[in-house]
Fold this protein.
Amino acid sequence: MRIDRLFIGLGKAVAVCMLLLWSLVPIAFVVISSFKPGREIFAVPPRHIFTPTLEHYAALWSRWGVFFDGLLNSAIITVGATVLAVVASTCAGYIYSRNSSRFLNGSVLFLIVVRLIPPIVITLPLFPIVNFLGINDTHGVLMVLYATFFVSLGTVLMRTFIDQIPRELDEAAQIDGAGRLTILRRVIVPLASPGILAVAVFVVVFAWNEFLFAFIFTGTNAKTAPLVISEMIGSIDGVDWGILFAASTVQLAPVLLFVVFMNRFLVAGLTAGATKG
Amino acid sequence: MKDLRTGLTRRRLLGTAIGGAAAMAAFPSWAQARTLNILSHAVHERVLGTAEGDLLADWKAANDASLSFTTFDSNPLQDRLFREASLPETEYSVGYLIDNRPTSDIAALFEPLGPLNDANPIEDFGDIAPGLIQGMTVDGNLIGIPVRHATQALFYNEALLEEAGISAPPQTLEELVEQANQLTFTSSAGTPVTGMVLASDLAVFPVMFARAFGGDFITHDFQLVPDRAAMEQGLSVLRGLFEAGALPRSYAATRNDDMVTWMQQGRAAFTVLPFARFAQLNNPEQSNFAGRIKAIPFPGSSTLPAGTPMSAVVEAWAMVIPRNATDKELAWSYIREVSSKRVTLGMALNGNGPVRVSSYADPALMQANPVAEIEAGVLANARGAFPPFPEAARAQATMLEEVQLAVLGRKSVTDAVGAIIDRVGPMMPA
């Protein structure tokens, strides 16, 4: 029996190690390579001991200034999309949680179905419309698109969270004279904050890294960092891998820190409702 | 409500904001009166120079205009250009187009430039390589003015050749095969060297090997595999190299950028890349063999009749004006200036493949680019990998699928060539 447990434990440990290796090795390679001298990045056999250098970061700064403009655009769009998605999801989740009708129940299914449509199907007909409205290449159009794309999932998540908050609290607030908006602001939002943060994490990660919508709907003013990185990869006069890895590291760092910081809320969000009877 | 610390009221704050905005709007602008929006690759903007090296500084001043480049990588750029040109109106007045894209339908999205050139001609138009002009002439209409080309060369690592006791690079395809086999060894530095590295996802390479025997994939007048025996010979050479280990075991997964890094690391002795990659391959910050990687014309087979020129593959970019552009006059003025002898040479000195024959005769370019003279000779006979047609992308993918099967030994070369003819045939334009 003990031997069985030992083997099972060992198997689990090996599986976790394999998973970690699979996930972390490419990221570690990119980050470490960004500090390697250019000639050593792809050296055969690989050189694990090297003198770290910041030359690629300096070159990124001097030769790809547009990348940092892209980072700023990414940040503005990510914040805007997150605020929009969180506000809309929370309001919608509250309504779905506290009300019930045939229409509402049917529309939940619609929310999930909409989420299954591939983004490219939506982007192609949207392009001429966005141009006609004159909102192409603006931060706003990406904020709205990213938020719209996540409102369905966010709403379902928020409904699950709000379902766990006792209705008696709403009723007590109502007796004290609070309206629906006040109940939402003063009672629901503080108690559902782990869910709000979980939705925010999803939107931030998506908006920060998104490529397709940004490629179709931006040009110069709202160009995001992933678009600039794609130009570095496909440069027709050759890829400078050191600069590319430096840019990838800079792009990765903020969202990685954010996700690590928010990790416990994300886990709470994902397991919301798991034990509800 | 008044802020006790600042004495500021809401009304004052609002009034100041509106007044400030109105003043800014009414204030004379120092910005140029006209902006020309351009869709291009970043390299097209970069070769025009910046600050004191701005090749278009005089043109901007004369036209009171500024340039606004929107840049993408090659394929996304073409996608966006066609999308913009399909709208009722686009703010982009100039786009950069690759020469293997303009089918009749696509060409119809762009302004015919012949009448503009007749009315207000480009300086010494005949000096621009005629083959490149031909590539931008669709249904009798000139739709783009060539601005950059990438012509394929054979690159070799001189240090590895010396180490293997080879005194001169190959003059014929047979010599290339022999040397590639000989150079499949472990170098004195302990690096396993492969004779040749080629990407498997581009039609350029099988086409070059077929042309070395006088064959082709699809000719300019849409003949599919015009010389079957030559195509079979070309693919047999590739198959032989793989079998001998002179192509990487990872051939099926090898991509264009792998070719550069393998050469820079001394992991391969030969490769086929555009001449424009010479600087990158020899960049001391990236390459372990800076200054030792040389370029020569890709050699033809010794079985070709004497004097038969080898046609290397060339890819060219051209400037186009979308039919729905808002400022065609300024767009044509820009194209004329960029196509001038002075700017063409300036861009060449910044690393652009010059489309004018006269640029290659300039001593400054000869000095700056050690392979300029060789490139000029190769360009004279170069042509595109295949002409544009609606099913070109699918035809290329089909051909590459069969080539990979043949090279990896999963199919005989004869069967693979037969399959190329059978499968690509229905995709050809009527």
Observations:
- The interface with chain B takes residues 37-39, 42-45, 55, 127-128, 131, 215-216, 219-220, 223, 227, 230-231, 233-242 of chain A (CB under 8 Å).
- DSSP finds twelve helices and no strands in chain A.
